[in-house]
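FIELD: query
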Amino acid sequence: MSLLGAIPTLVPFQYNLVDNIFSMTVATMAASGLFFFMSRSQVAPKFRPALLVSGIVVFIAAYHYFMIRQSWQGAYAFADGTGGAAGSYTGSGKAFNDFYRYADWILTVPLLMVELVAVLALSKAVARPLMVKLVVAAALMIGLGYPGEISDVWMTRVIWGVASSVPFFYILYVLWVELTASLDSQPVEARGLISAARLVLLITWAFYPIAYAIYGDSLPGAVPGIVGERSGLAVVGIQVGYAFADITAKAGFGVLIYLIAVRKTEAMTPSERAEQERAALVSA
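FIELD: result
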């Protein structure tokens, strides 16, 4: 999605708020990735792939948010005020390339499903079909949403939004119905964290369809026919909201995956842990 031709004028506070939030998001994602990679030795070998995927997810996000910030800075130019008026940020003529965010989602959202299934350490007969269902549905959810995201036609946005919602609700069904059946096989100490991880996905993902419904060149943060052009407040709100939702859904979710792995490792007997370490050394 590009804001070229529809970039609203922002006061310095609005522009700097978005720019600083993007900077914070890059730092948060990169720091989280280092933490996940360095923490792998603290958990049993069978849970380490989950932390590896967690690290990959946030590093991918760090890269894309770096690019989003670069595009944001290039899309605006500061204009000095006249007659004593304060300066403002106006469009530079370059597009704000929001496609980086969709490129991030198409990679990271399926990987979020991978790390969740990986940390559960289910039997291959259960884990493989569960992972395939979640990964395919996640990719379809993002892929089907993009044609509507880049469209200015309200009905086109509705059609693709509805299509994208089908795999979204299927993912919720799998997480709350099929995945619930596997909770009995998980250590008691980890069950609450697993439930919390599902809730984090539900709560943070709920922001995206709301933003999708109200955000477009012909839909500036309101219902069609009421507001005619995109407002700076809507743009700032969406960008800040997306950033915080991504931080929670990736870095925050990754912390929960780490805690689940730690709790499950602590629930293992010393002999089980030693056997896994020996097996890991042999396979290496």
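FIELD: remark
Residues 1-5, 217-229 have pLDDT under 50 and may be disordered.
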